[in-house]
Amino acid sequence: MMLIDTLAQGLLLGGLYALFAAGLSLVFGIMRLVNLAHGDLIILAAYLILTIATVTGLHPFLAVVLAAPVMFALGWLLQTHLLNRVLGTDILPPLLVTFGLSVVIQNGLLSGFTADSQKLTAGSIEAASVSLGFVTLGVMPLLTFASAVAVVFALNQLFYRTALGRAFRATSDDQVTAQLMGIRPQNIFAIATGIALVVATIAALYLGTRANFDPSIGPARLLYAFEAVIIGGLGSLWGTLAGGIVIGMAQAVGASINPEWQILSGHIAFVIVLLFRPRGLFPRAND
Amino acid sequence: MRALLQIAGLTAHYGDFQALFGVDLTLDEGATVAIIGANGAGKTTLMRAITGVAKVSAGSVTLAGDAITRLPAPDILTRGIAMVPEGRRLFPSLTVEENLLIGAHARKGNGFWTLEKVQTLFPILKERRHSPGTALSGGQQQMVAIGRALMSNPRVLLCDELSLGLAPVVIKEIYAAFPQIKDSGTSIIVVEQDIGQALRVADHVHCMMEGRITLSGRPAELSRDAIHDAYFGVSHA
Predict the structure, then answer these.
(1) Which residues partner with A118 through β-bridges?
(2) Alpha-carbon distance A220 to A43, whole Å?
(3) CATH architecture of structural domain A2-276
């Protein structure tokens, strides 16, 4: 019984990690850009939700609806004015620029909001739970997981069922030929980063309601996100969800043995998956 | 006939290497022009310079009186010049049907070519519509590439080395579609190493060597020897 409970908690935690990772996976899949500031952008989104909730008195679940378009615009501007300039055959410049961006965001948040821990308060829903007979699950973790599944499903629909998704895939395959189709890769990239930051905003909502956050915790979220993307297989969105679940479950099992082993267990699971499946669980055929 | 596409003094470089030396070429409305020449003659560079993929260092490209030199590639497509690139370059992540649909990505309004019309022109593309584009045979992939370019309803269709690597029977099948493409009001430039095919399909033939046009004329006016000389750069004694 304990084990089932542990695994269920781990599964739901995996949803949070998948939300951290989905935007990263999307951006990498389309433009082969590894955004080292992704974790910090999630934290930035958490502060944005906090600010909106504080100023307007809105519930965080409503504040996120206002924060999402702001983050989309930020992503669009970031890609158009900064990242598009450094994308090219050399992978080093975008890595350095996003690393620098990570430092800028952390220090910006530090001077704007201090190093004090913050939390998004969602009210009574935070303590609510549902009993499924043999296991009792929190409503917030369930919502987190459901949101992760919904986000991955929606991104997949976008990718494989819409004209924009077709343009995403064509641009990812071959930028020069895509331009011969009238596609402007720089616009496509800007839209993709905008969408990635909307997903980051959803991740921020659950990150901020689940536990405390402060300006310095972005890089650790980036690490979980990376591990989820790589376990799943680069560029596969369902794989990213699976990767998040693997880390979440490994952490839950580790913590049940010894609370100090929680974080370590997730990283060990990552190494084990890579040992046996170096390209991840669901690698794309044409990479 | 009215000149649709006019190229004047077009010059292009790859770094220090000059690939095109002041090329002049005119494509009349409704005409088909063939450009022949050996490997490295500059044919593909000329196509890439027209479509905005290769940088133009001097000269001009004019489409129906509008200067389009140095416009970005997506703008040139929306002005009405579509290309079937060398090596077909289908998108591996897209199915056959999606490869066709992406050709209409920037299209505004209606035109002759629709998915149904392209699938009627090449029926195999309807049959295999859910296959990955790159799972098809070379000839079928070439049909997808042509269909994809037609989906933008171009005024000018550029075809770069359609017959490269294909069996003669397949080449014949592909060129059999050309009368219908011409009838739809599209003017065509084909780049060919297959001289016989070029002479059959074109109203006007230009031979290129070392980045220059060395011979031009109507197929009936050009003697085998003259073409041979222009193509190989040797003179018949």
Answers:
(1) A213
(2) 11
(3) Orthogonal Bundle (1.10)
**Minimum Cα–Cα distance from A167: chain B residue:** B102
- Find out whether A264 and A223 touch, Cβ atoms under 8 Å: no
How confident is the prediction along chain B (237 residues), in pLDDT tens digits per residue?
689 999 999 999 988 899 999 999 999 999 999 999 988 899 999 999 999 999 999 999 999 999 999 999 999 999 999 999 999 999 999 999 999 999 999 988 788 999 999 999 999 999 999 999 999 999 999 999 999 999 999 999 999 999 998 999 999 999 999 999 999 999 999 999 888 889 999 999 999 999 999 999 998 888 888 888 888 776 554
For residue B81, the chain A residue with the least C-alpha distance is A180
Minimal Cα–Cα distance from A161 to chain B, Å? Answer: 10
**Least CA distance to A177: which residue of chain B?**
B89
Residue A144: which region, alpha, beta or left (left: phi > 0; alpha: psi -120 to 50)?
A: alpha
pTM of the complete model: 0.92
Q: Which residues of A touch B85 (CB under 8 A)?
A: 177, 180
Say which CATH superfamily domain B3-232 falls into.
P-loop containing nucleotide triphosphate hydrolases (3.40.50.300)
Sign of the CA dihedral running A208, A220, A112, A189: negative
Q: Do the beta carbons of residue A44 and residue A215 sit within 8 Å?
A: no
Residues of B in contact with A187 (CB under 8 A): none
In this complex, the residue of A167, A169, A174 whose CB is nearest that of residue B89 is A174
Task: Residue A177: list chain B partners with CB under 8 A.
Answer: 85, 89, 91
Nearest CA in chain A to B51: A180
**B103 contacts A170? CB cut-off 8 A:** no
Complex ipTM value: 0.92
Domain boundaries, chain A: 2-276
Instruction: Say yes or no for a CB contact (<8 Å) between B74 and A184.
Output: yes
